[in-house]
Amino acid sequence: MNDIKTDLPMNPESTALKITVLGSGTSSGVPVIACDCKVCRSSNPQNRRLRSSALVDVRGVKILIDTGPDLRQQCLENDIRRIDAVLYTHEHADHIFGCDDLRIFNFIQKQEIPAFGHARTIGHLKKVYSYFTNPFQNGGGVPKVAFHEVSEVFDFQGIPIEPIPVLHGKLEIFGYRIGSFAYINDCSAIPDRSLERLKGLKALILDALRYSPHPTHFNLDEAVQVAQQLGAERTFFTHITHDVDHSEANGKLPNGMELVFDGLQIAIDLSSHP
């Protein structure tokens, strides 16, 4: 029986791991500024892509993957009212420049928010957001974020989270595995040791930038090959440019593979996977 459901209403009392795709676009988003291409002018809402991010809900614990520059809009559009933790894939601008918006959740939840990532990424975040701990003026809202370096499986509120090292060009970054779900964006190669840690997935979200080759991202053909090698029950492609029309690309993908779109919800039954 297929225990993966997509784009369906979520029951908060269920035993599902629930993923909401907050953004499916590359660093420029779609539509691209000042572009008149077919995809940028498309009326299909699935061709409108905010910067890549996702929210994972594990039995009510809300884990955000990346805080891109569209975070405020993504939270409003998806009615996000709580964030318990953040997982950072890497330190590029399209993945971190919404971090200041976490302060609203500090006000609501009355507590700091832990954020986890590669040591290099955390070091960069501490520099960019040094005012979090050393405010340069009194007054105003200062986010309360506790940055933590991770490299191996760690536990957050009883949930094992596994950082998965992958390559973004020459840069080592992290994907993440939570139970039988994994999220890997901005990826051009997956080392053998990480491939082994991605076996047995029910759902995989994987980078697939465009049709033509790129030095720091999988293109669509490469992503399909990696997805076939990993053998997840369902694979969803993300971090997509305006070169790719949603409907046209989906019609050509193998069974069990599809492009994500902003607002897509995926539910994985955890009843047999504690």
Structure description:
The protein has 274 residues and is of the alpha/beta class. The protein has a single domain (4-269), classed as 4-Layer Sandwich (Metallo-beta-lactamase, Chain A). The chain has seven helices and 15 strands. The strands form two sheets. Strands 1-15-2-3-4-5-6-7 form an eight-stranded mixed β-sheet. Strands 8-9-10-11-12-13-14 form a seven-stranded mixed β-sheet. The protein starts with a strand and ends in a 5-residue tail after the last strand. Residues 7-13 have low confidence and may be disordered.
Q: Please name the CATH topology.
A: Metallo-beta-lactamase, Chain A
Give the end-to-end Cα distance, rounded to a whole number of Å.
Answer: 18 Å
**Can you tell me the residue ranges where pLDDT is under 50 for at least 5 consecutive residues?**
7-13
Tally of DSSP β-strands: 15
Provide keyphrases for this structure.
single chain, 274 residues, alpha/beta, Metallo-beta-lactamase, Chain A, 8-stranded mixed sheet, 7-stranded mixed sheet, 7 helices, 15 strands
Please write out the topology.
Blueprint: E1 4-6, E2 16-23, E3 53-58, E4 61-65, H1 71-77, E5 85-87, H2 93-96, H3 103-109, E6 113-117, H4 119-128, E7 145-149, E8 154-156, E9 159-168, E10 171-178, E11 181-184, H5 192-196, E12 203-207, H6 220-230, E13 234-238, H7 246-250, E14 257-259, E15 265-269
Parallel strand pairs: 4-5, 5-6, 6-7, 11-12, 12-13, 13-14
Antiparallel strand pairs: 1-15, 2-3, 2-15, 3-4, 8-9, 9-10, 10-11
